[in-house]
């Protein structure tokens, strides 16, 4: 029995000895949970305090995700230039200041503050989100230099990410339904400050990372992008010449177009007008998928994968779309929660595949730059999907949000099945 239990964790045991990596995971989880509390509060306020919520929710998703996508290449260039520690600490401080203004604006919602002020502040914060995300992505390779440990390290990073998606929305739902929205934003700001302090400590204990960072750049002086434009050109050129990168880009584009862009708009409206539920259920729906995702990541991170990564990613993402089809046609809270749980398990390995391919194939000196270019072309479809859904809801009404979700999920399933079985997808 003990041996079987040990085998269940055998790939994870070595990584737990890396204390700085473990602390990095914990503080990242806390800060992301706080950020999700702010997102739940903001979307709920826009849904319940103003007329025509679909307009503001659509604008919120389009503007925030456009800001994220457009700024990703430049922020990735800054991470390659500054290093992950400086970049992460800087972005944390800037976002804390912006959230302070958001907190102040929500204090005056009942006094006539425009919803566009709230949308604008969230958009401003999302300009700096890619600086945080690319820093965290590079941080994994800085703190985990043994490539054999990258798969379990990426699995654990995905687990903490979705643990945040369990904790954050549930806490956010409690704040909007009982405790009060203002305390939730204070929690978010506190989580960012905690992240910044801990990362300062980790940076002092890992001064040697800069030697490692500089050595790799010194060996690639000709390839090292010196300006943002050069970084952008280098990133695009690398992606075009590397089939795995193109595959990840295409799959990510479709996924954001048909699922992740639309559900940001659909979830709150689907909860209120189709499921006829409150803010707690809204937070529950956002969280239950993460429970399945965590279980799926844990299992996937402990497996020896011998399948084509790109083809498997496409198939799993297609199945994820099919599950949203069933959610849309059977609007029952228990059924929806079960399907979202299964969806998390199904989609979990794709997160590991995507990160590991990039960390192994992209040279360190351009890791953030190339990854951010990938993020731009993948995530630019997210606001397009949000705009599409917002237009459909405004045309047909909130009560059709479930059917819209079902149609988009079915389209994603068909598209991914067609793409995944192309011969080129089996070579990666």
TrEMBL record:
Keywords (A to Z) from UniProt: Cell membrane, Membrane, Transmembrane, Transmembrane helix
GO MF entry, a single one: transmembrane transporter activity
Transmembrane segments: 21-42, 54-76, 88-109, 181-203, 246-267, 279-300, 307-327, 333-350, 362-380, 400-421
Membrane topology field: Multi-pass membrane protein
InterPro entries, per the entry: MFS, MFS_trans_sf
Domain of life: Bacteria
A Gene Ontology term for the protein's cellular component: plasma membrane
Principal localisation: membrane
One Pfam family hit: MFS_1
Gene3D superfamilies the record matches: MFS general substrate transporter like domains
Compartments it resides in: Cell membrane
Name of the protein: Major facilitator (MFS) superfamily protein
Organism: Shouchella clausii (strain KSM-K16) (Alkalihalobacillus clausii)
